[in-house]
Amino acid sequence: MIPAVPGVDLASRIVGGSVVAASDESFGFKERLVDPAEPAFVPGTFDLRGEVVDGWETRRHAGPGGDWAIVRLGAPGRLCAVDVDTRFFSGNHPQACRLDAAVLAPSADATGPDVPWTTIVESTALKPDSNNLMTVTDRRRWTHVRLSLATDGGVARLRAYGEVIPDPALWSDVTIEVSGLEQGGRVEWCSDAFYSDAGSLVAPNRPRNMGDGWETRRRRDVGPEDHDAVVISFAVPTDLKRIEIDTSYFVFNASLEVAVLGAAVDVDDEQGWAAVSFDIPVLSRVRLAADARQVFVVDARGVTALRVQAYPDGGIARVRASGTPTAQGLQQLREQWAECS
């Protein structure tokens, strides 16, 4: 099972997040704040800046205003929580922080005096060497966040968890990769994630190696119908046209076959995905090639989520589902956009 998280990390480099400015980065580079990898630390490793840290760290004595860093979200959206991760920073962690957010064009100067910043997390004390998870209650859509420290110090990662809010103007009259993380696609559940996280199935980038995909443990004494499975949801109902199953880098351990089923219902808040019936045939059971991208033409209408069934086990790097939003789906996007503006 993949671990429960508050939402998609909208600040991650995986979806194009970028640290566009910082007050100082004397000891640790600001870009590490949005690194998707977990922070690490090797004590006693030094370079010309001092002990090597895996995070953003400023010089001592920042002054009364503290330090700050501005992150442009890779996928603009509605935030539900932020994690100011201070792991491996103990004697040099910041005392407290505040989170502000704004809506700006990608090319705008986020450091300008006229930027309309809104505080979304009031000043909160930070624990050393810890994940500091903070709830965001403001339901608007944001493009940038500013981490303001009460003092100087070091932060390993800034995770901005939330929900992607796609621009309906970009979905009108075109085919969209609706399963993609940048378009609001999400991995909701998987049967097994022994070797790697199923969340990478919807990543926008090409896989880099065998660890950048979904790989399950080896099943033993299985029958012809036994399989692993993963559920991927879409932002809105979609008429599907293409399904791509990518087994890149899985040479000797790719899934042998795959079948794809769809659902056309919204999730029940109480029972969740366990109560959803996947009764729309999207892709009949088909043989997969190892270390290859295979694209299948499909015709499935009004699909809100997919159940990808991998027979009997093995590895898949990416699943890409492309189509056009239904009339209802496009209207849903427009209403969501208006609600968050």
Automatic annotation (TrEMBL):
UniProt KW keywords: Hydrolase, Purine metabolism
Show the InterPro entries listed in the entry: Allantoicase, Allantoicase_dom, Galactose-bd-like_sf
> Which pathway is recorded for this entry?
Nitrogen metabolism; (S)-allantoin degradation; (S)-ureidoglycolate from allantoate (aminidohydrolase route): step 1/1
Entry coiled-coil feature ranges: none
- Molecular function as annotated in GO: allantoicase activity
Catalytic activity entry: allantoate + H2O = (S)-ureidoglycolate + urea
Question: One Pfam family this chain carries?
Answer: Allantoicase
Highest taxon, organism lineage: Bacteria
Q: Where is the Allantoicase domain?
A: 16-164, 184-325
The EC code for this enzyme is 3.5.3.4
What family does the Swiss-Prot or TrEMBL record give for this protein? Belongs to the allantoicase family.
Full protein name = Probable allantoicase
Q: Which organism is it from?
A: Mycolicibacterium septicum
Taxonomic placement: Bacteria, Bacillati, Actinomycetota, Actinomycetes, Mycobacteriales
Q: Write the gene name.
A: alc
